[in-house]
Every structure is written in structure tokens, then in C-alpha cells.
Specification:
The structure holds four protein chains of four kinds.
Chain B lengths: L2 E4 L10 H14 L2 E4 L8 H7 L1 H17 L4 E3 L3 H16 L1 H11 L8 E3 L1 H10 L14 E5 L23 H6 L3 E2 L18 H17 L4 E4 L2 H9 L1 H6 L9 E3 H8 L18 H21 L1
Parallel strand pairs in B: 1-2, 1-3, 3-4, 5-6, 5-7, 7-8
Chain C lengths: L3 E6 L11 H9 L4 E7 L5 H13 L4 E6 L2 H14 L7 E5 L1 H5 L5 H20 L7 E4 L3 E5 L3 H12 L3 E5 L14 E2 L4 E2 H14 L3 E4 L2 E9 L2 E8 L14 H5 L5 E2 L8 E2 L2 E2 L11 E2 L5 H5 L4 H5 L12 E7 L1 E4 L3 E3 L16 E3 H8 L20 E8 L15 H15 L4 E6 L9 H10 L4 E4 L4 E4 L5 E7 L4 E7 L1 E6 L1 E3 L3 H8 L26 E3 L9 H19 L3 E4 L4 E3 L9 H5 L5 E7 L5 E8 L9 H5 L5 E3 L4 H10 L2
Helix pairs in contact in C: 1-5, 2-3, 5-18, 6-7, 6-15, 11-12, 12-13
Chain D lengths: L1 H27 L1 H11 L9 E6 L3 H10 L8 E6 L7 H9 L4 E6 L10 H18 L7 E5 L5 H18 L7 H7 L1
Parallel strand pairs in D: 1-2, 1-3, 3-4
The chains are: A mainly alpha, B alpha/beta, C alpha/beta, D alpha/beta.
The complex binds flavin-adenine dinucleotide (2 copies) and iron/sulfur cluster (8 copies).
One iron/sulfur cluster binds next to helix 17 of chain C.
Chain lengths: ~190, ~300, ~650, ~190
């Protein structure tokens, strides 16, 4: 049992992920291997450091950062961390917090919009369909003009089923969403 | 392995259609029945765990419970993301009774933890050891391929268990059985940008470009993958990459199941080979050209 | 009537902070048989010991209990004090209130309660103690040093110069160890061979040293003062008594492509070989795995070449039994095999090398004559990346420890490279620079400031090998807060220092402990750093922990002085913990005889005055009994007891626990 | 056959030994003292008493190492030091239970690392037989723990004590679960 005075944020993260950020010795291997680091405003190792500090300023910086929304969840960092830590999971937890507190960086609304559109599709139909997802995403993100090349090509390759599949148990899926929104209580 | 549960996942009905087609075609000739998990729902892919950790477990949990209730014992999930989410959920709920209890409450369903999970690499590995043994012709002899695992088929110690996480070789046996030569390259486990295809296209183009470039440098004539997300990033985005002036790639990207299907004598069209953005049908031509050249070289050497 | 005195130590704050010593003293004063109970801040200090001595005399104590640290720490101190006051030292017991109580419990009430229990138990035990007298055993004044690296060499020379005989057992064909392979040595950059070889020669010619090269310890019996060590002299296939080391044989050997161990695989050797030109003894052995004669029965070229007729293909291993009084283990270290690091190429790439390979490249006597040329194509690398802490400080690889010397040798490597390739870049990825030593920090600063080594703080995540042979090193600069990629021609990994393979087996033979990483355990990390828990077995060099040469040599000299100290008396005192048979009740079932791991129990015939055998019983040979107590537990008629741990004593302890 | 004989003999020795010792303790007046103490102390949380028989070379030193490393563990254990686990007489264990222990730990060097070449092998060989005997005398073998803790394993020692304490705390005091003991000893 580590008795070090971990920050409140560190405790929250530990509770959510089982990963104790206090153990990070700032070697930077996560940063070194991260495919997205070059786009990030906070490197993965710096995310770990800010989480160690965990005061209001650090928490604010983390939750408002672009970096947490740039993480792909590719687990390169987790795979290679010499301290057997899990930065990818830490970032998951931070994203969830960031969204809950409405702190998501304005620059990252596209990513957020995409995730939300994705989940909306699943909530309504039980599955993800490229067409509803794309339209929903475009409406909510304002990202109207990208991908103009792809859709027609996909259509010709038979890769864009236009009518989404709706599953029988979609009510059950809706209930799951509702329960999870309430913090995991049905 | 006469029958096996089948979890196609959303992308196999859309952008990953060729994977679905080729896996089914292979199963057909191997005499394996694929029993689709009834009324499955989306596993949540990379979206759920970004926004709600409970949802990220609860969605796959419903699928596990349904599959178990249906009497299945093994699930083939060809999509790497689905596989990771399903197996990851299984690992987590079997390890933590509290989490299992919570999921029971959320979904109203019971999962006892009896399922086993098979990804497309293991599935094909078993086919070529079993029903397809001796039935594969080295039709791709002379073709140099880069085996691409991506992050989802190489990482997660609990999810990908019997694999060297840094230098995986799970595809090698199948590719060699098909006659292909597997090149030594660097980016076998590098991430292609995954789920950012729409929301952060620039990054995906960049990462995919680097990957393609390394495969070219290593002399690969095609990339072989098992993951529909990687496939769509590498195959469908290649044109955009070229348009943006990042490179001028023309690299066929095939599914492992397609390569093995070719070796097993399946019709390319039955596996969706004609549906790729970058012409994939040509791998057979490349191979046969290489074979002819080699035969000629051997002839001259004899003289 | 027992008159027990109880002495409670605060150990400064160490005990006093969690244990209410005054309360324990008060409780002790009330225990049956206790006539005197006091507490004091530092019992082991001179005034503390004085208190004990005074009380023994004034209160006529018949037993003493000291509640303080672990008996492993100060039992000898207090027993000596008791003896000085005229009390038999074995009438003193210690309660372990520090290691077993105050340091491991936080709750003051519970710790105090436990402390009272611990004292009560020992008070009860000591009431049942009997006077015992140390046993004297003669010492064989010859030492064995196992391992002929710099540590073993130094220990052997120091002992030999102290006038005692030494047997130096080295498993490879030559002594010298890893130091012989180094190019130049930090922090002074003197040539390793130049300072080492004179000592190697001195070993070979010293009248007090018997060098047993190409030999290994096979088994060990006995104990301090009298070890019986069996050494296996491996078959050399060369009669060293005839061989002059002329070299005609290896010049003729047709098997020339064996990767040389000495050159870390960068050079080649023959099947009959000496590891390096300055080898001691400077005589060859035949590597039976590769020799055509020994594997296929033909060749014989070396025998034909040898004018002295020294080659003997029929040579066989030989077992030699040696009696020694003390042993120094100096088996050194190895470099960890970085092939477990898949992200650094998993050992697949010729141009990703380890520290020894770099040493050989930089060494004037190495395979490139001291030019830094990379293994794959012999080109001179223009950018060299050094990666520190490779495998060390890496929980994932199961090694949490710091290897201590790699910061320094990496700085040295960067410096040597820059001295040889002036325009080249030396980029060092590090986590911390550990340069604690005389002149060490200055050395590292020199590498940076004078020689232009580029230090980048961060670990490397992955190395790629591009088709053109460039190694792409993906690291991070955590101080600048950004990822950083370097295109390198050569990468040198500072692999972790690990114990030699097989060192565990040796430890088990000598009864020496080793830690979870496999390094030998010293008896006390600060106060007995060269002794082990096995009496008479000492440690020197990197087998105990990663060490550089100055540390290895200091420890070796310390071990030698311990050996000489032990040998300075003709006899040894040993704790009189030995078994005794009650010959009246022994039924001679011989169970104990079978059970004793030391064969210390013998049949004995009790005869009457006329010489008729009245009874056969078991009898313990005091010289052989080690006091393990196995016989006591096995005897079904309760006829054996163990001094110091008698049934009476142990039962009184158990009973008192409630 | 032989084993049965052995068992019978062993038991008669046990009983005889205990009888005489019991008289000894009564003389010291200790028994009386303990019994009154027991009545008083009925703590809310059950604090089990654990008697640990450890060898001097490995486990005792391991416990020392736990101390020098400041590893905190439950204060419920009382160590009885012996030269070797080979010295441990099963009677010790019976006696410990009789004296009020709720569990007994026997711990020595790892097999092969015994300071006394093979003392602990003998101990292990004998345990196979003694185990049955102990069971016969009514001792729940789940209350007798065996372990190897080397001089290097301070953390293992601390963990072991914590685990045993937790297990035994959950199992409850010895007497209640063990009517056989009353029959034999009281
Ligand atoms: C790359 C590198 C560079 C270094 N550079 C420096 C430097 O510049 N300056 C410096 O001070 N230090 C340096 N060191 C450290 C130095 O090498 C060590 O401090 C030193 O070699 C330790 O000596 P040793 O005798 O303890 O062990 P070793 O040199 O390992 O010697 C052990 C000997 O014991 C023998 N042996 C092993 N097992 C047995 C057995 N079972 N029976 C019989 N014999 C056995 C071995 O064959 C060997 O001869 C460097 C180390 C490395 C890895
Ligand atoms: C704040 C601090 C904390 C430390 N903590 C630790 C720790 O936790 N663990 C650890 O291992 N080490 C620790 N150390 C280091 C430890 O104190 C030293 O390693 C150790 O004291 C060195 O012992 P010494 O005998 O060499 O020198 P000293 O302790 O300095 O003893 C030298 C003695 O020589 C006497 N003397 C000096 N000159 C003369 C003279 N001309 N004639 C006669 N006598 C003379 C002095 O009076 C003194 O008694 C610590 C050091 C400091 C400063
Ligand atoms: S790799 Fe692990 S220890 Fe290193 S900085 Fe990243 S999280 Fe911290
Ligand atoms: S999981 Fe996220 S932070 Fe970790 S390496 Fe991948 S992208 Fe970077
Ligand atoms: S006797 Fe032991 S406990 Fe007391 S002061 Fe000395 S070291 Fe500390
Ligand atoms: S030729 Fe003979 S004498 Fe010369 S080194 Fe070889 S064995 Fe020795
Ligand atoms: S006999 Fe063996 S060692 Fe001698 S020359 Fe031939 S191969 Fe070499
Ligand atoms: S000495 Fe330096 S390089 Fe070696 S493990 Fe320690 S910190 Fe790392
Ligand atoms: S075991 Fe006991 S009875 Fe048997 S021979 Fe030994 S001492 Fe005598
Ligand atoms: S105490 Fe141990 S060494 Fe001594 S006689 Fe008994 S069994 Fe043998």
C-alpha cells in the first residue's frame, strides 16, 4: 500500500482505472511511442505528471486539453510502460470527466461529435450504420464538406447500406444507455 | 470445430464487407458453420469507452450474455475492435465480481463467463491446421507481403495472449501456406489512426501514409491485415493521401481471409476482392509474373 | 529461584515512537521472576551496556532479557557484555522489539501490547536457559576464491600477501573476468588491460596462490573453518604442464569461425584457443563442442602441430577434493540479454549492440583494432544512439533496480566515440544520470561540455530499421516536452547488470542467500557488507550487486581482510547449539541417525567395566552437529534435546504466548 | 500398518507430555492469569492470535527484512524462533492451539535453500504424516499454514501475515469451530 499523498484527481483515476499515476517516474516512453504525440498539446507523460499534481490548475489543464481527445486508444503507451501503468486508461477516464464537466476543448468538438453521433446511432438502432452515423455527425459537427470523395465510391463498392439495420432488442439497448447515463444504476 | 458463434459487428455489414464475405466463404469450404449471435448489438467500438466507462462494458456484456444463452461456447469476431471489446469485457467481468454484479443490474442479463473468443488470425490458423490442411495451393508464390497487425491485433496483454506483442507472427504461417513471402518491416504493430477516420482525418492520412511508405521501402507488394478499420484507413484513404500530395501509393490491401481464400481456390469475387478501392485482384497477376520470371531464371541457370 | 533482569531499549525514536517503553518496563517488572526492569535510549551504547553489567553484578541476575533490535544485530554485543559481568552469555536472550514490532506496526496500543508479549516470552524462555560454553573448532588456514575477475584476483592477492594459502577457482580458461574485455576505464580512462594484466601475472606466479582455471565448484560439505570443497577440473585436452603457449596449435586449427566469447561475438576464434593474448594461464583449451576430432573423430591437426606433445584428446574431467577454512565468492555479473526487448529489435539487428560489444569495438586489441565500425557493414557510424537503463529500472522486465554502472560507462562510451569520430554525433537517452563517485560527475560533465555528447532526457519507445540500414530511434525529450526521433547508424544499449547464470546453484551449495534478482545477499547491508549469512563465506565484486571496478576492488580487499581475520586464530568459537542424547531413554531406533543432514549422530556402545556391551545408543558428535534440531523432532522417545532450543525452552515460550 | 502404530504411539506421547507440562504451568501460575484475561477481552473485531514457528536463517531474517523495509502488517503474530523447521515438533503446534492460538504458521527456508542442507526436507516429509495426525486430534488443518519465506522476502512475509490474519479473522476463533479440542484437552 502506497502511503504517499496522492492528489484527489489521482485517487479518482485510480478508482476508475486501477492505475496509480503516482507510480509514473516520468521516463517519457509513452510520449516517445505515441503516434499522436506530435499533435498533442500535452504529451502522454505530461498528462501523467499533471494527474500526479492534480490540483485545480492541473485538473483544468487536463480536462480542457486537446491531447485527451487526440488519443487513439492504441495502447502503445500501455504496452511499453516500464512501470506497468496504463496511460490509455487514464486518458479514457479524463475524457469521460471532461465530457461530464462540459470542459471539452472547443477544437475537439469534431471528435466529441463523432463519438456522440456514433453512440446515438447505437442507442436508437442497436447498431452503427455508416449512413446514419455520417449524416448525424455532419449535422452536429458542422464538418459538412469532408469525405465527399468517399461516399460515392463506397456506394459503388456496395459498402454503404442505405437502410440501417434495427435490432429487436433496441429497447433493451436504450435501457442500458439510460442506466449508464445515471452512473451505472438501472 | 464444426460450428462456431459468429459476431460480425457493424463494420462487417458496411465498410468491412469483404472481411465478412471472405470469412464466410472460407468457413463454407472448410465445412464450419458460423452461427450468428442473435440480435447482437454494437460493441461500442472506440466511442463508448471515450465517454462512459460503464457503457463500454455494458454494451458488449449484453452480447456475451445473449451468445451464452444461445448455447454458444466460442465466438469468432473477425473485426479486431469487436474482438478486443468482447474479450476485454469478458476478462474484466470474470475478474471482478463487483463489475459483473453491476453489469447484471444494468442489463438485466446474466453472463456466466463460459465463452471463448477467436479472432480472425486464430480462426484461420485453426482452419489451415485442420480442415484446410493440404488444400492450400501456393498460388501467391512470388508475392511479397507486409503482414499488418495494427494496434488491436497486437496489444492488450489480456486480449491478445499467445502473441509476441512487439513482433507478432500469427499471420506468418497462413501467408506462407498461401505461398506469399512475408517481408520484415517496421510498422506491423503501428496504429493507422483507427477510429479517427472521420473526425481527425488529417492524422489518419499522416499515419497511414507512413505505414504505406515503410511497407513500400521494405519491398512489399501488398499489405495484409485482419482488421476492417485498418483496411478502410489504408485502402480507402490511399487515394486521399495521394491527392494531398503526401505520397503516391498504389498498394493493394488485403484481408488475411482473402489471401487464404485465394490459396484455397475461392473465386475473388465471392470474397469481395473486386470491392477494394485499390485494385486487389492484381496480386494473382503479380504472383504469376514472379513465378514465370523465376522459372525462366531457373531455366537459364540450368543451361 | 530465577532472578531475571529486563532491559528495554528505545533505539532513539525507532522503538520509542510506536512502543510505549515505560509501559513495557512496568509490565515486565511485574512478570514472575523479574527482579529488575529498566528502559534506556540506546542500550547498545556504552552506558547502556554498563547498565546491564552493573545490574548483573548488583542484582545477582541469573538471566537477562534485552528488548531491543533483532538478535541478528546485537545479540553478540549484549552476550559479550554479560560475559564481561560474569554471567554465562547464553543466559541472555533478546526480544525483537524493533524489526518485529515497532517498525512494522503503527498502532501504539497494539504494538505496546505485542512488545509486552515478546518480552514475556523471552523472560519465560531465559528462565529455562542453561549455561552453555562455546565450542572450539580448528581452522584450516587456506582460503578458496571462486571467480577470477578483478574482484577475485584482488581478494586472492590480498590473502596471499597476508601469508595464507589461496586456491583460486575460475570457470573459464583464463582469469581476468569482464575487466579484461574493457577498452579504457572511467573515471580516469586508463587502459583496462594495462592495469589488469600485471595483477593477473602476479596471481599466476604467487607462491601462495594455486590457480585452478577452467574449473568449477562441484559440491561443498562442512562449515566455517573446515569446508570440504569438491572442484571439477574440466577436460582441457591440453596438458598444461607440457604446453608452452607457443600457439602453433591454434594457427593450424581448421575450425576458425567460432564467435569469440571474449569479443562478444564480434571476433572469431578457433576450436583450440586461448580467450585472448594476455590470458593467464596463457595456455589453450580445446572447445569440445566445435573440435572436429572430438565430435567426428578426425583432424588431429593441433596434435601434429604441437612439438611438445601436449595435446591429449582423451583428457577427462577430474574431481579434486580440497579442504579450506574460508571462501570468497567473486563470480561477477553478466549483461542482461536484451532480446526480450521486442521494441528495440529483440536482438535481431546487428547494429543494435550491447555495452561489451562497444567496449570491444573501442578496444585497441579488439576485432576492429579500436576503430568504431558497426558490425553489419563495417562502416564508421556517424550517429550513435546510446540508450541507458535498458532492462534496469524496468518493472515490466522484472528488474526494479538501478544497475549503477551504466550511466558511467555510457558517458565513457560517448566520450570514446567522440574522441575517435570527431564529427560524429553521440546521442544519449537517459532517465537520470547517476554519477555518485569520486570524479564521476566531473567525468560526465566533461563528456557533455568538452566532448559534445548530447544528453536527452527520456526513454526510447521503439527502434525501426529502415531498408537503407538506418536505425530510426523514437524517443522523447521530456524536458522539452516533445517526442524526438534520431536517425542512427549504431545503437548501444546499456543493458542491465545481472548475476551470472548458475550463481544460484553456487549459492545453494555454500548456503548463501540471494535476493529476488539473484545477487548474493550480504549479512547486513551497512555493517556487514562482505559477509554472508553462511559463516566463513564472504562476497566480493559484482556478484553481490552491480559494481564498478573501484567498488569491486574495495570489497575484495575487505573480504580478504575478513578471511585473514578469521585465520588469525588457530581455532574458532562456535555457538554451542548442539543436540544431546539422553542415553538412559534412547531405544536405539536410529531414526535420528538417518535424519541428521550432517551425519553427526553415530552408534555408540555403552560398555560395563568388563567391556561387555550393555546398551547401544545414539551419540552426537559435537564437532559435526550444526544444531538444526531435526533429530530432536524425529525422536519418538523424546531422547534428544537441543541446547539453546530445548523442548522445555520452546514449550515455555509457546505457553507464555497466551 | 506402521503408520497406525506410529500414530497410536505418537498420540500417547502427546497426551503424556501435555499432562506433565500442564502441571508445570499451573505451578507458574500462568494459566490462571491467562484464563481471567480471556474472559475480559471480548473485542468487537475478533483479533486472532497467530503463532508462527519460523527458522532462524530464512523466515526470521525475512521478518527482519520486513522490519528494515518498514512494511506494515497485522500485529497479531507472535514469532517463535527455532534453528530450522526441522526442529519443529508437531507437539509445538498442538500446544500452541491449546494455549489459545487461532492459527499456526510454520515457515522456513525455500526447499533447497535450507541453511542446514536438508533440514526442511525432513520437515516436509514428516508433515505428510503429521498432517493426518493433527487432523485426528481435531485440529482444523485450514488453521495451520505452511510457507517458505527466504531472508530476502520481507514483502512476502508481511503479505503472508496479513493474509493469514484476514483468513483467520473471517473463520472466527478457534474454540468455537472446534469441539474436538474441548473433548481432548478440557
Ligand atoms: C560495458 C561495461 C563497461 C564497463 N566499464 C567500466 C569502467 O570503465 N570502469 C569501471 O570501473 N568499471 C567498468 N565496468 C564494470 C566492471 O566491468 C566490473 O566492475 C568488474 O568487471 C567486476 O568484476 P568482478 O570480478 O566482480 O566480476 P567479473 O568481471 O564478472 O568476474 C567474475 C569472474 O568469475 C568467473 N566465474 C563466474 N562464475 C563462476 C563459477 N561458478 N565458478 C568459477 N568462476 C566463475 C568468471 O568467469 C569471471 O572470470 C564496466 C562494465 C560494463 C558492462
Ligand atoms: C544528513 C546525513 C544523513 C545521512 N544518512 C545516512 C543514512 O541514512 N544511511 C547511510 O548509510 N549513510 C548516511 N549518511 C552518511 C554517513 O553519515 C557516513 O557514511 C558515515 O558517517 C561515514 O563514517 P566515517 O567513519 O567515514 O566518518 P565520520 O562519521 O565523519 O567519522 C570520523 C571520525 O573521525 C574523527 N576525526 C576527524 N578528524 C580527526 C583527527 N584528525 N584525529 C582524530 N580523529 C578525527 C571525527 O571526530 C569522527 O568521530 C548520512 C550523512 C549525512 C550528512
Ligand atoms: S511510460 Fe509509464 S512511467 Fe514512463 S512516463 Fe509514461 S506512464 Fe510514466
Ligand atoms: S493510447 Fe493514446 S496516448 Fe497511448 S500511445 Fe496510443 S494514442 Fe498515444
Ligand atoms: S540495541 Fe538495537 S535497538 Fe537498541 S539502540 Fe542499539 S541498535 Fe537500536
Ligand atoms: S602447440 Fe602445443 S605447446 Fe604450443 S600452445 Fe599449442 S599445446 Fe601449447
Ligand atoms: S583437432 Fe580439433 S582443435 Fe585440433 S586442430 Fe583439429 S579441430 Fe582444431
Ligand atoms: S546506472 Fe544509470 S543507466 Fe544504469 S540503470 Fe542506473 S540510472 Fe540507468
Ligand atoms: S531417535 Fe531417539 S531413540 Fe532413536 S536412536 Fe535417536 S535418540 Fe535414540
Ligand atoms: S541437531 Fe541437526 S546436525 Fe545436530 S545431530 Fe541433530 S540433526 Fe544432526
Amino acid at each position: 500500500m502506497s502511503k504517499s499523498a496522492a492528489s484527489k484527481l489521482a485517487e479518482t483515476i485510480r478508482h476508475a482505472t486501477g492505475c496509480n499515476v503516482v507510480e509514473c517516474y516520468q521516463c517519457g516512453k509513452c510520449t516517445a511511442g505515441c503516434p499522436m504525440a506530435k499533435y498533442m498539446d500535452l504529451m502522454p507523460s505530461q498528462i501523467m505528471r499533471q494527474a500526479q499534481i492534480g490540483d485545480d490548475e492541473a485538473t483544468d489543464r487536463l480536462l480542457k486539453s486537446n491531447a485527451i481527445w487526440l488519443c487513439l486508444g492504441c495502447l502503445t503507451c500501455t504496452q511499453r510502460c516500464p512501470q506497468k501503468l496504463d496511460p490509455a486508461a487514464v486518458i479514457d477516464a479524463l475524457r469521460e470527466m471532461s465530457n461530464e464537466r462540459g470542459a471539452v476543448s472547443a477544437k475537439q468538438r469534431k471528435v466529441l461529435a463523432f463519438h456522440k453521433a456514433f453512440l446515438k446511432c447505437v442507442e436508437e438502432t442497436g447498431r452503427m450504420g455508416e449512413v446514419p452515423l455520417t449524416s448525424l455527425y455532419k449535422m452536429t459537427s458542422g464538418d459538412l464538406f469532408s469525405d465527399v470523395l468517399m461516399a460515392p465510391l463506397m456506394l459503388t463498392r456496395g459498402k454503404l447500406p442505405l437502410v440501417p439495420k434495427v435490432i429487436r432488442g433496441r429497447k433493451a439497448v436504450k435501457r442500458i444507455f439510460a442506466a449508464c447515463r445515471k452512473g451505472g444504476k438501472p | 470445430m464444426k460450428t462456431i458463434g459468429y459476431f460480425p459487428g457493424c463494420s462487417l455489414h458496411g465498410s468491412g464487407r469483404e472481411l465478412d464475405m471472405s470469412v464466410k466463404a472460407l468457413a463454407r469450404i472448410a465445412g464450419v458453420e458460423l452461427k450468428e449471435v442473435e440480435d447482437w448489438n454494437c460493441c461500442g467500438a472506440s466511442a463508448a469507452h471515450n465517454l462512459n466507462h460503464n457503457l463500454a462494458v455494458a454494451l458488449p456484456y449484453r452480447d456475451l450474455a445473449l451468445a451464452e444463452a444461445q448455447g454458444l461456447t466460442e465466438i469468432l469476431a473477425p473485426c479486431a475492435a469487436c474482438f478486443a471489446r468482447l474479450k476485454g469485457t469478458h476478462v474484466r467481468v470474470t475478474r471482478s465480481p463487483e463489475l459483473a454484479a453491476q453489469m447484471r443490474e444494468i442489463t438485466g442479463l446474466e453472463y456466466r463467463g463460459t465463452l471463448r473468443f477467436v479472432n480472425v488470425i486464430e480462426f484461420i490458423g485453426r482452419l489451415i491446421e485442420g480442415p484446410l490442411k493440404g488444400k492450400l495451393a501456393p498460388r501467391l508464390a512470388g508475392l511479397k507481403v507486409a503482414a499488418y497487425y495494427g494496434c488491436l491485433m497486437s496489444r492488450g496483454e489480456d486480449v491478445i495472449e499467445d502473441e509476441d506483442h512487439e513482433n507478432p507472427d500469427g499471420m506468418t504461417a497462413a501467408l506462407e501456406a498461401a505461398g506469399a513471402k512475408v517481408v520484415d518491416w517496421n510498422f506491423a504493430t503501428e496504429c493507422c489512426g483507427g477510429g479517427f477516420s472521420m473526425s481527425n482525418t488529417d492524422a489518419v492520412l499522416d499515419l497511414s501514409h507512413e505505414l504505406l511508405a515503410d511497407a513500400e521501402q521494405a519491398g512489399a507488394q501488398a499489405i495484409v491485415t485482419g482488421c476492417p478499420m485498418c483496411h478502410s484507413n489504408l485502402d480507402m484513404r490511399q487515394l486521399t493521401i495521394n491527392q494531398r500530395g503526401l505520397g503516391s501509393h498504389d498498394m493493394p490491401v488485403l484481408y488475411l481471409s482473402e489471401v487464404v481464400g485465394l490459396a484455397a481456390g475461392l473465386e475473388p469475387k465471392d470474397m469481395g476482392l473486386d470491392r477494394h478501392f485499390i485494385d486487389a485482384m492484381r496480386v494473382l497477376d503479380i504472383a504469376s509474373a514472379a513465378q514465370t520470371a523465376q522459372a525462366a531464371a531457373a531455366e537459364t541457370a540450368k543451361k | 529461584m530465577a532472578r531475571v533482569g529486563v532491559f528495554l531499549c528505545h533505539c532513539g525514536e525507532n522503538i520509542g515512537r510506536t512502543v510505549d517503553c515505560a509501559a513495557v518496563t512496568a509490565a515486565a517488572a511485574k512478570m514472575p521472576g523479574v527482579v529488575h526492569a529498566v528502559d534506556y535510549k540506546y542500550m547498545c551504547s556504552d552506558p547502556g551496556q554498563q547498565m546491564i553489567k552493573q545490574a548483573i553484578v548488583e542484582k545477582k541476575l541469573t538471566g537477562v532479557v534485552v528488548g531491543a533490535c533483532s538478535p541478528r544485530m546485537h545479540e553478540p554485543t549484549f552476550r559479550r557484555a554479560a560475559a564481561e559481568a560474569g554471567l554465562n552469555p547464553f543466559l541472555l536472550e533478546m526480544s525483537n522489539l524493533r524489526e518485529h514490532c515497532s517498525w512494522v506496526h503503527e498502532d501504539r496500543a497494539k504494538a505496546t501490547e505485542k512488545a509486552v508479549d515478546l518480552v514475556r516470552v523471552m523472560v519465560e524462555k531465559v528462565k529455562h536457559n542453561r549455561k552453555l560454553h562455546s565450542i572450539r573448532v580448528p581452522i584450516e588456514p587456506t582460503a578458496m576464491v571462486v571467480g577470477g575477475g578483478i574482484a577475485g584476483i584482488q581478494a586472492a592477492l590480498d590473502i596471499a600477501n597476508g601469508g595464507k594459502k589461496v586456491i583460486l577457482v575460475e570457470k573459464s580458461p583464463s582469469i581476468g573476468g569482464h575487466m579484461a574485455r574493457l577498452s579504457e576505464t572511467f573515471p580516469t580512462l586508463d587502459c583496462s588491460q594495462c592495469i589488469l594484466t600485471p595483477r593477473m601475472v602476479e596471481v599466476a606466479s604467487h607462491p601462495n596462490i594455486t590457480l585452478m582455471a577452467y574449473s568449477e565448484v562441484e559440491s561443498v560439505e562442512g562449515f566455517v573453518g573446515n569446508f570440504d570443497v569438491t572442484v571439477r577440473k574440466k577436460a582441457r585436452y591440453v596438458d598444461w604442464s607440457k604446453c608452452t603457449g607457443c600457439g602453433d596449435c591454434w594457427a593450424k586449427c581448421p575450425v576458425k569461425k567460432i564467435p569469440s566469447e571474449f569479443d562478444a561475438g564480434l571476433g572469431k576464434r578457433t576450436a583450440i584457443y586461448r580467450p585472448f593474448p594476455q590470458a593467464v594461464p596463457n595456455k589453450p583449451v580445446i572447445d569440445q563442442e566445435h573440435c572436429i576430432m572430438l565430435t567426428k573423430g578426425k583432424c588431429g591437426a593441433c596434435a601434429k602441430a604441437c612439438q611438445r606433445g601436449a595435446i591429449n584428446y582423451k583428457d577427462q574431467d577430474e574431481l579434486v577434493k580440497i579442504k579450506v577454512g574460508a571462501v570468497v565468492l567473486a563470480t561477477g555479473f553478466d549483461l542482461w540479454d536484451h532480446s526480450a526487448y521486442g521494441e528495440y529489435g529483440g536482438g535481431r539487428w546487428a547494429d543494435v549492440i550491447d555495452g561489451f560489444q562497444f567496449e570491444r569495438l573501442a578496444s585497441a586489441s579488439g576485432p576492429t583494432d579500436g576503430e568504431i565500425r558497426r558490425p553489419s557493414d563495417g562502416r564508421i557510424p556517424q550517429t550513435v544512439v546510446f540508450i541507458q537503463c535498458c532492462g534496469s529500472r524496468d518493472d515490466k522486465m522484472g528488474k526494479a533496480y538501478c544497475s549503477k554502472i551504466c550511466c558511467m560507462y555510457t558517458a565513457k562510451h560517448a566520450m570514446l566515440y567522440k574522441h575517435k569520430v570527431h564529427e560524429g554525433r553521440a546521442v544519449i537517452f537517459y532517465m537520470d544520470i547517476r554519477a555518485g563517485g569520486k570524479g564521476y560527475e566531473e567525468f560526465v560533465r566533461r563528456a557533455i561540455e568538452a566532448d559534445g555528447a548530447e544528453y536527452v532526457r527520456g526513454r526510447v519507445s521503439r527502434i525501426y530499421r529502415r531498408a537503407d540500414g538506418k536505425l530510426i530511434v523514437k524517443g522523447a525529450d521530456t524536458l522539452a516536452g516533445r517526442p524526438m526521433t534520431v536517425e542512427a547508424d549504431l545503437v548501444v544499449l546499456a543493458d542491465a547488470i545481472v548475476p551470472r547464470t548458475g550463481s544460484e546453484r553456487l549459492a545453494q551449495m555454500f548456503g548463501v542467500g540471494y535476493d529476488t534478482d539473484g545477487f548474493y545477499s550480504e549479512a547486513h547491508p551497512k555493517l556487514r557488507p562482505v559477509e554472508t549469512s553462511a559463516a566463513g563465506v564472504f562476497l566480493a565484486g559484482a556478484c553481490q550487486a552491480p559494481k564498478d571496478i573501484p567498488d569491486a576492488v574495495s570489497q575484495a580487499s575487505a573480504a580478504a581482510s575478513k578471511v585473514l581475520g578469521l585465520f588469525s586464530k588457530p581455532e574458532l568459537e562456535r555457538e554451542p547449539i548442539i543436540a544431546r542424547v539422553n542415553e538412559n531413554t534412547c531405544v536405539h531406533c536410529r531414526a535420528c541417525i538417518a535424519a541428521c543432514p550432517y551425519g553427526a549422530i553415530e552408534d555408540f556402545e555403552i560398555k560395563d567395566r568388563k567391556g561387555n556391551v550393555v546398551k547401544r545408543v545414539a551419540r552426537v558428535n559435537e564437532g559435526l552437529c550444526q544444531g538444526c534440531g531435526t533429530c530432536v523432532a524425529i525422536c519418538r522417545s523424546n531422547s534428544i534435546d537441543l541446547d539453546g532450543f530445548t523442548d522445555e525452552q520452546v514449550f515455555s515460550e509457546i505457553v507464555t504466548l497466551e | 500398518m506402521l503408520k497406525q502404530q506410529f500414530a497410536r504411539r505418537f498420540l500417547s506421547i502427546c497426551a503424556a507430555g501435555l499432562r506433565t507440562r500442564r502441571a508445570d504451568w499451573d505451578r507458574t501460575g500462568l494459566m490462571a492469569e491467562t484464563e481471567t484475561k480471556k474472559v475480559e477481552a471480548t473485542p468487537a473485531v475478533f483479533e486472532p492470535k497467530i503463532v508462527a514457528f519460523v527458522c532462524n536463517w530464512c523466515t526470521y531474517a525475512g521478518a527482519d527484512l520486513a522490519g528494515t523495509s518498514r512494511l506494515q502488517y497485522a500485529p497479531n503474530v507472535r514469532i517463535v524462533k527455532l534453528p530450522c523447521t526441522g526442529r519443529i515438533d508437531p507437539l509445538f503446534i498442538l500446544k500452541a492451539f491449546e494455549g489459545g492460538a487461532d492459527a499456526v504458521l510454520v515457515s522456513g527456508c525455500h526447499p533447497g535453500d535450507c541453511h542446514y542442507t536438508s533440514g526442511n526436507y525432513h520437515a516436509r516429509r514428516r508433515w505428510a504424516i503429521f498432517r493426518r495426525l493433527l487432523e485426528f486430534t481435531g485440529i482444523d488443518m485450514r488453521r495451520v499454514f505452511f510457507s517458505w519465506v527466504s531472508a530476502a522476502e520481507g514483502a512476502k512475509f508481511a503479505d503472508l501475515i496479513n493474509r493469514i490474519t484476514a483468513d483467520v479473522r473471517a473463520a472466527g476463533p478457534f474454540e468455537r469451530t472446534n469441539p474436538a479440542r474441548r473433548r481432548l484437552w478440557k
